[in-house]
Amino acid sequence: MKLKLHNSLTRRIEEFTPQNPERVTMYLCGPTVYNYVHIGNARPAVVFDLLARLLRRQYPQVVYARNITDVDDKINIAATEQGVPIGTITAKFAQAYREDMAALGVAPPDIEPHATEHIPQMIAMCERLIADGHAYAAENHVLFSVDSYPAYGQLSGRSTEDMIAGARVEVAPYKKSPGDFVLWKPSTLDLPGWDSPWGRGRPGWHIECSAMCEAHLGDTIDIHAGGIDLQFPHHENEIAQSTCAHGGKIFAKYWLHNGMLNMDGRKMSKSLGNVLQLHELLKLHPPELLRFLLLRAQYRQPADWSESALKQARATLDGWYGALRDLLDVPVDPRDEVVPTDFEAALCDDLNTPEAFAILSRLVDDTRKAATPEQRTSAKAKLLGAAHLLGLLTLHLDPQAWFQQNAAGDESDVAQIEQLVAARQSAKQAKDFALADSLRAQLLALGVVVEDSAQGPRWKRVSIDELA
Ligand SMILES: Nc1ncnc2c1ncn2[C@@H]1O[C@H](COP(=O)(O)OP(=O)(O)OP(=O)(O)O)[C@@H](O)[C@H]1O
Ligand SMILES: [Zn+2]
């Protein structure tokens, strides 16, 4: 099935044609690891995880790299404040990032390059750029000369004046032109640094990604992805460096950018302070609910984080898991799951997840309408095939667990609840309604409601405001 993607470079939806169908390459700018990430930072990881899943269905080998930025001034500040080496901070938060992504069902990338492990490649790239007249050394810095690359600004479609104003670039005496940006900068002894032809120093952020792409994926990659906030200056600068370091070869054929996750109409960002840490949210909500919310809007559109969106998502997933619970008697082998054609077509249309979610809801309805055993099996196979491609309905073998996990996905009090439910059932059978009612009240106090179904009592957790 033909995959179509919006390419920020041409500002058009294009058919995806890899350079080499035997080896598709994709790079995503990963996190700068000095703190727990916020839920906005998880949007690119989840969205491009979905793209990787789609690509893997179509191509025999997809090499997906998502880097870790483990040298950066923000990390240095955090390390100084806490009085520890940067490695202590970066190791801790890189690991936290991996764990949080795994909780969201994001598959680990094929390659996870760390910036600090590619310093020689960065230095070599700087030397090549200097030799070819695209960069110059000045006062222990190396700067990229934007005037040496006439196509500079093509990705963001900005004029040089806009770019300089927008980036609030530092006017430094050693710059030949105000738009020139840093490839390498000097480090004082209290800062992390590496020996280089320009003295002890450290890389600028942009050269890190260019060097890691080159080292692992080659001079030209198929897809480069990241948040729209990185389009300028980060991606513009990556293009300038890589293209000039590779004799004009195109750096990335397709540039994909996700829209921002907003809170109260503004980008969720550490600098604005309106962030919800994913690490904390995972203690409050089932991870699948968060994945659902991050995929619900089409990836290029801005998305809003709100309590009402959370509630709606929960209700939808309750409905889907309710349908699966009614199909417990229908076993479906994972190899028999089917991804319906219209569902895959929606995703292949520039990851049209709103359409894919609408189809999923129809597939849920189809399971309810299915009458014969064959129809029920076929409807369940399609529902699971579709949902699993999105990384949803992962609790399909035990749908009741969806209703019984408490907010944090913790099931530690289940035994106690089941005892109360069983005691209430015995009381009802013994027609001791006073006792049954008091047990129901005890369960309510634990945030649990009991429904009497044909298969016996079923319980689920509800939130305080649902009870009100
Ligand atoms: N609110 C957001 N919504 C969606 N993606 C975001 C958001 N904020 C950052 N990103 C993306 O998260 C990824 C990791 O970025 P990085 O670690 O550099 O975060 P950051 O830019 O420092 O975050 P912040 O803007 O909060 O300071 C990038 O691809 C970036 O585009
Ligand atoms: Zn990058």
Automatic annotation (TrEMBL):
Pfam families: CysS_C (PF23493), DALR_2 (PF09190), tRNA-synt_1e (PF01406). It is found in: Cytoplasm. Zn(2+) binds at residues 29, 209, 234, 238. Residues 342-403 form the Cysteinyl-tRNA synthetase class Ia DALR domain. Binds 1 zinc ion per subunit. GO terms for molecular function: ATP binding; cysteine-tRNA ligase activity; zinc ion binding. GO terms for biological process: cysteinyl-tRNA aminoacylation. ATP binds at residue 270. InterPro entries: Cys-tRNA-ligase, Cys-tRNA-synt_Ia_DALR, Cys-tRNA/MSH_ligase, CysS_C, Rossmann-like_a/b/a_fold, tRNA-synt_1_cat_dom, tRNAsynth_Ia_anticodon-bd. A motif ('KMSKS' region) lies at residues 267-271. It catalyses: tRNA(Cys) + L-cysteine + ATP = L-cysteinyl-tRNA(Cys) + AMP + diphosphate. Keywords: Aminoacyl-tRNA synthetase, ATP-binding, Cytoplasm, Ligase, Metal-binding, Nucleotide-binding, Protein biosynthesis, Zinc. A motif ('HIGH' region) lies at residues 31-41. Transmembrane segments: none annotated. Coiled coil: none annotated. GO terms for cellular component: cytosol. Its cofactor is Zn(2+). It is an enzyme of class 6 (ligase). Its EC number is 6.1.1.16. HAMAP family: Cys_tRNA_synth (MF_00041). Monomer. Belongs to the class-I aminoacyl-tRNA synthetase family. This is Cysteine--tRNA ligase. It comes from Pseudolysobacter antarcticus.
